[in-house]
Structures are given as structure tokens and as C-alpha cells.
Amino acid sequence: MVIGERPVVEEPRLAVRRRSSSLWSRRSFLIAFLPALAAVLTGVAVLAVSGNILLPFERVITLEGKMASKRDFFEDEEVQRILMKHRIRVHITSSGSREVAVGDISSYDFVFLSGQPAGDLITRQRAEKNAYVKVHRPFVSPIVLATYREYAETLRDAGIATAQRAAGQGQPLYYVLDMRKFLESIDEQRRWNDIGIQQHGITNANRILAQTPDVCGANSAGTYLALVAFTWRGRGNEVPDSDQEADDRARDIKPLMEQGLPAADVFRTYMSPEGKGIAPVVVAYEHQYLTYQVHYQAESKKLDSQRVLLYPSTQFVTQPQFLALNRDGDRLGDLISQDPELRQRAMELGFRILDPTGEVAGDQLTRFLEQRDIPVPSMESDDTRSSMPRLRFLERMISIVGDCPAAGDPAGRPE
After folding, report:
1. Which of 68, 83, 85, 250 qualifies as a cystine partner to 397, CB 3.0-4.6 A?
2. What are the Cα distances from residue 116, in Å, to 121, 220, 397?
3. pLDDT for 100-116, tens place per residue?
4. CATH architecture, domain defined by 55-140+319-371
5. In CATH, what is the architecture of 141-318+381-412?
């Protein structure tokens, strides 16, 4: 536009723009981001303080193990958490201890056997092949007979069992079983009704027996067999010391043994509602029962007073053996034997942990049970400790009682 001689220029138009806001300054983003950032920083701080700052970047190894009842230890969530701190994960294949000993274990890093006989069998075989094996003995658990109050009280009425004096107040949870009288009742084919179980509100026309797992595969059954062989007509010569004596003793005690269930199923059957009718007395390990009572107390704030234990008057404490089959397995064996957290957890699972000399380490289990208002079992007995037969003779007895193939030394196999 031109006015007169001078052109008229339009004034520039100014646009007002909103200032671009940074992503970091948006309130909604900060509300969502800051808690996550705080959690990350807290986690880093915790790892740094615990010395595990590099833990997420370390390699986790998975170890293959084979075992029976001691799988309870490795299946425990707290044990798994502790092992993960050491970058170890464990995969378990369930199998009876003797079944482990006579089977192929070449693909495993370790085996965890419930007692010494099966462990001796493997260490001998590995030594013959010059193969890697290292033994760890982290804890022990006595053989017991798990039953129900009506049956324990019936045995007490018949003079076959007595209540433990130090079993705590109220109804006793623990009894001492006179093994010789118990076996005499089995030998005489007496029935529960014969000794007055009706006086305790139930009837049972079945024979008095203790149910064991399959003796061909389970250490608990083999240990009970040795206990029976020690007690039954073992006067002056408690364990066989010749092939012929082992064979004769096995045939003598075979009618006293009732076995057949897989090792894992015996205690589960006992814990089931049907257990009282199916298997009123079963061979088990002390730690299985104590763990059950700890969990029951935690959930219900009371004891299961209907399930009780019978401690044989002749004692045999089974000593689980962790056998490392390579160096990774040996590292795990060192951990469960020496790591304070794992030792503490083993005790909380009902095991009697061992010190470096192989003796039970103090009274930790006693204090643990007392703190949870669970009566503490005492190892009352007639001061008789049963002795395991030599491996050669035990294997002959197992093969006869269970009608199963013998293992180990071919010369030790019965005809």
C-alpha cells in the first residue's frame, strides 16, 4: 500500500507459542517414574551393602541331583532362595536311596542318600572305577514309626509302648516302642482288635504291622530291616557275620516285614485322611514328622495331637550322605554342610545338624521347637543301639526279604 510518496509497511504479526515442556517436568510422568526410580536405587543400595552388586550378572548353574526323602530339603522355598544367593539352582529326580545306589548316576552332579549303606555302595563302586566322589554328612534324622493316638494308646495298654516322660504337658506326642514285644505280636499274628483297640473308639481286624516303603529301593525300609534283624533273635550275635547267617536271618524276619509302597508315598499316606485305615503304623524319619507339626502349628495355632511317634527302644540313627560326583556337586555339599543359613534352615526342617566332628551340634533343635510350643522328643531307649550289618550281608538280606536283585559284589549275592 502506498500513501502519498511513502509506502506503508504492515507491522509484523507476533505469534505467542507455549514453551515446550520437558518430559522430565511433566507431573504425570514424574508421579509414575519416581517410585520406580526409588525402587531401583534401593535395590542397588541393598546389593551394594550385601556385597552382591554383581549378582544379577553372575552365571546361575543348575545341578542335577537324585534322592528320596531328603528332597524335602531342596524343595523348601527358603533353601532355594539361599542357594540362589550362591547362584545355584537344583533340579531333583526322586528315587529311593538303594534304587539310586544300584542305578545309573552318570548324568547327575550329586546324589543325596538317606543312610550309610547305600552311600557305601556308591563310594565303593566309584572307587573301583576311579571316578570322582566326595562325601558330606550335614545332618541326621532317626528312624521312627509314625502312628495315630488310638494305636499308640492301644500299644501302651498292652505293655508294648510307654509315653515319653519328657514329652511336655497334656497328651503325649512321643512314645517308646518295645521292639521285641512289638515283633513278638507280629510273629504271633495278633490283630489290633486282639489287643483292645476298641477301647479307643475304633475297630481294626488287620494284623499288627509296620508299613515300610519297598525295601528294594528305600533306605528307610533297609534300615528298619536291619533294626528288625538286630532285635529279633539276635541274642549274643546281633548282626549276621556270614553269608549263611544273613540268608537265614532274612528268611526268619521276612514274615515280620510289610512293604510295598514307594518311599515318597508312605508318609503322604500317613498324612492323608485315609491313612488311619490304610497304614496305621508307618516307618518314617523324625524330621518329616517335626516339619509337619511346625507347619501345622504355624497355620492352626495348635498341635495335631492325633498323629504321634513311636521311637524304637533299640536306636539306630540314620546318617544321610551327600555324595558329590563332580566339583560343582562338591561346592553344593560344602554349602549345605558349612553355610550358616543353610544349616539353620536344615534345623528348622527338623534335622539334627552335625558339627565338623560328626556329632549333633548342640541343642538348636530343642530351642527351635520350644520357641514354637512343640514338645521336644527325647532319645529314650533301653541303652541298646542297633548295628548295621556289613554291606555285603545287608544286601543279601534285602534281596531275600524284598525278592529284589542284589547289588554290589557278585560274590555276595544269594543263590
Report:
1. 250
2. 9, 11, 16
3. 877 889 899 999 987 77
4. 3-Layer(aba) Sandwich (3.40)
5. 3-Layer(aba) Sandwich (3.40)
